[in-house]
Amino acid sequence: MHFECFVFVIGFFFLFFQKDYHYEFTECDSSGGRWRVSVPKPLTCVGGAPNPPTRVNDCRISCDAGTYFNRTTLECLSCPPGTYSLGGGIKFDTWEHLPLGFHVSVESFESNFRLLHNFATDSGVNCSEYGWKPKKSFISSHGGPCAATLSYSVELVKPGVLSYYYQYTDPSILFNFEAQNDQCQSIEDVEKYKWPRLTEEAKWRTSTVQLKAGLNVLYWKTVGMGFSDKMKKSKPVRIKKIEIS
């Protein structure tokens, strides 16, 4: 009696759908280009990526206002009805909570003004009361005995412009702006932007800053110079809108 053995090789086919992954871009390389790669959802695309990386030869691609860069087709396409594009920019004008990418830090601060006028700060002061706080239509910071910093980092593929819409009515608060590159060096003409001007009561002012291509780390800082617990709180510095284009 003769038996024949048959070996069946079963092939596994992995079906991937666009909803199961998203595209991301690598950092720009020495040739001025980058790669688009597919990033699958965890435990969804098991067994390999949906498609191979795609080369994008120019890191400086930017689309005009009214169009957006489609990561699937790698082209600038018109915005769908009911949507709009800033043309490669970003805008923050809603402050229900701290937007993604922003960071707030606070630390105790003693000024010579306070010490000379016996406004010594209680070492147990709660600095969290004086940090930048989202207030729905704006973000604000009281001066107080603490230095409060609002920061945001942005990577620009070409030179851009920062505009922020602010209210600053109390001269007892120092309000300072600074922008640095990836080497922690301040931008050119820093003195022009470093000290935003006071505004009239209930008035707002726009400050515009020129940014270079590459990484820009933006800082808005406040600190009260004459504050004491026995004095009335300083009027807050408010920022209503931040736009980068």
Describe the structure.
This protein is mainly β. It folds into two domains: 21-87, no CATH class; 91-117 and 127-244, Jelly Rolls (Sandwich). Helices cover 4% and strands 37% of the residues. The protein has helices at residues 112-116, 190-194, and strands spanning 21-25, 34-40, 54-56, 67-70, 75-78, 90-92, 102-108, 133-134, 139-141, 146-156, 160-167, 173-180, 205-211, 214-224, 237-244. Strands 6, 8, 9, 11, 13 and 15 form a six-stranded antiparallel sheet that branches. Strand 8 and strand 9 form a beta hairpin. It is elongated, with a radius of gyration of 26 Å. The termini are far apart. The relative contact order is 0.16.
Quick recap:
This protein folds into two domains: 21-87, no CATH class; 91-117 and 127-244, Jelly Rolls (Sandwich). Helices cover 4% and strands 37% of the residues.
Set out the fold topology:
Layout: E1 21-25, E2 34-40, E3 54-56, E4 67-70, E5 75-78, E6 90-92, E7 102-108, H1 112-116, E8 133-134, E9 139-141, E10 146-156, E11 160-167, E12 173-180, H2 190-194, E13 205-211, E14 214-224, E15 237-244
Antiparallel strand pairs: 1-2, 2-3, 4-5, 6-15, 7-10, 8-9, 9-15, 10-14, 11-13, 11-15, 12-14
GO cellular component, one term: membrane
Signal peptide: 1-22
Organism: Araneus ventricosus
